[in-house]
Amino acid sequence: MADSANPGADSGHSGDGHSGDGETRRDFLYLTAAAMGVVGTAAVAWPIIDSMNPAADVRALSSTEVDLSPIEVGMAITVIWRGNPVFVRHRTPVEIETARDVALDDLPDPETDKARVQKPQWLVIVGVCTHLGCIPKGQRVGEAKGEYDGWFCPCHGSHYDTSGRIRKGPAPSNLVVPPYKFLDDTTIEIG
Amino acid sequence: MSEFKPTNPVIRWIEHRLPIFSFLDHAVGSEYPTPRNLNYWWNYGSLAGIALMILIITGIMLAMQYTPHQDFAFDSVERIMRDVNYGWLLRYVHMNGGSFFFIVVYIHILRGLYYGSYKEPRELLWIIGVTLLLLMMAAAFLGYVLPWGQLSYWAAKVITNMFTAFPIVGEPIVTWLWGGYTVGNPTLNRFFALHYLIPFVIVGVVMLHIWALHRFGSSNPVGIDANGPQDKIPFHPYYTIKDLFGLGVFLTLFAALVFFAPNMLGETINYVEANPLVTPAHIVPEWYFLPFYAILRSVTFDLWFLSAKLIGVVLMFGSTMILFLVPWLDRSPVRSARFRPWYKWFFWIWVFDCAVLTWVGANPPEPPYLYIGQVGTVWYFSHFLVILPLLSIFEPTKPLPSSIGEPVLKGGGAATATGAASKPMEKA
Amino acid sequence: MKRLIIAAAAAAVLFGLQAGAVLAAEGKALPERDWSFSGIFGSFDRGAMQRGLQVYREVCSGCHSLRLIAFRNFAALGYSEDEIKALAAEYTVEGGPDQEGEMFERPGLPADRVPSPFPNAKAAAAANNGAVPPDLSLMIKARDGGADYLHALLTGYAEPPDDLEVLEGQNYNLYFPGNMIAMAEPLFEDAVEYGDGTAATVEQMASDVAHFLAWAAEPAMEERKRMGIKVVLFLLVFTAVLFAVKRKVWANLP
Prior knowledge:
The complex is a heterotrimer. By secondary structure, chain A is α+β, with helices and mostly antiparallel strands.
């Protein structure tokens, strides 16, 4: 047995009055070591994982300011935001009217026009088709706008209306409205 | 022989189909008996393994952000330092991890040389180890080029140019290495690919190294074989916890370096982007290559048809290659320097010689450094080619103890040895 | 245990040998200064950095680029988002191409890098007697002696000894390796007017710009040292605990 060679040591076997105390002390030590090991491992793992998150230069480009003043009524521009095109359309009263008159039951993805704009004449939507990611046509004068006068995706024939909502075709949902805010009447910040 | 009998049903299910648990038990558990008298110099093997893992993990994370093109490499490293979350930490850990890998491995090698770990039957283990050292040196050299600083570029130029020393085949080989007519973008790109590859080759060879080790188990400070199971203890938990403690010391020192002096072991000029038209005033390699650099530059004279450059190159490679021959140069039947009083002296003189060569390598190849380097080079090779064989023949060695336990047990180990035979552990 | 210490000491000696050898190769000994960012508790002095930025903008940026710094980085100097936007907008950068494929000029944004005074290295050399003024983003890390060296250099212009010939386009400096530097003395008394009222002596400007450039070379330094204290303390405690566990385990040898 170990005891004879090491009288002072904790034998680790039960039945000895002293060893209970020693056992608790030893377990506490082992527990502390294990707990510190877990904390240390987590502390090491976090920087490794976080380094894959967007870096500071990427985050700096995560919002874009857009000057609305050069956009005439009825015209639209395309800006890049986080690598994707964003359509900013200055809607005509007719386009706004048409968007508002649609019954929700007619929409594959029901959403009111009001819920999609902050100021009715400005429509800001991400120009990526919600089907498989192509960029819909309709930004330029003369481009196909589809049957609902909004945008038309040439890849698989999705039609979007003047509020950017899907009306016909395989796309499952409306064109995404990105987070944006008006810095003043003629400037918005997207993202 | 105690068998590995798991009670947990999940473990049993896995073990039956892929016996990985009993494999681990054999590798480090109750089935892997280790000499009981190992001292802290035996920690450095596991430390080397940990250093390798640290380098691989940080290296992969860095590779996600690095661009191996000469127009972007330097800036991509600075982007890592400034913009990537914790990028500075990954970079500094990787950079200093390389230095720590070499410190640890050099001490590991010194341990082997001092205690005769390379002797029969562990010669192949030693040879695999020297192979690992060569792979490490290749990986380190390649890695240093990647940041594309002044020394990255010029060290690459100087070292690859060395191959022109070889007659006839030299020039075509160098052009082939460069992928062009000088160190350029093709060179950088392929160095990146190879720098990513070699650590995994190292992992494979490390497995061979450990396999060879486990064939006979560790040697020990006294250098005599175990007389029986009483001289050994299971690796787990004794050496696992001792290795963990050693790791704690290592990590503390490593953290102190990484967080408070991360550039101490480097050269400032490498923070200047590579300029093929401007040669830095002092081209120096990283510290762990300095002794070899000193040897390379110590040859300043031609010998018959052999140019000084060629002899220098041969000696430089030779200084590492000679390690392969140590088990045959040193034929003394006594393993450990504890019982070899003359060898002990020469060992420390040789270590001092390596330190001197390191210092010489950091200085310009002019007097007095040049002369000291030449003396140091002659001594370096003499130690292996002259001293070791002579010692094998003439050294009066001290008498060896009768057992591993004997030197530490008072009044002889006989009583405990027989008493220990009845312990359950030793029913081998 | 004793041997572990010997090993550590041996390692330290080796590093010292190597480091010492490099410094010995340089010239005049550098006066060592007290910087707030030195030592394990070091931190940057924002006032000094802001003054240093002013010196950079008004004196150095005429020739030296700072291409690794973006305007958004100046938040670390204590500037607000609006101040940074205004600062960036003072500069013009190239934007585009526009819808017609033309490049155009636009005011700077926080995400832009600090523009270079010259479009390329050749233009920089042509304007400076053939010598290219180096980029300053990493200068403190790229020279032995760091901020001490930079400060010494900027205040180290002196009259050359009588027997030394100073060539056209060269200037005598006590601390530049070889003593002949192509850059003429850049700092003169009151070269800038500090917003906080600090006297703009050469000594002060040199100190401030060195401080600013020390930050520019490594913005993460404060975070590194803060983290380092926590990590090293944790590891010291953890290692001590592991030592205790080791002793406990080894007390029961079979």
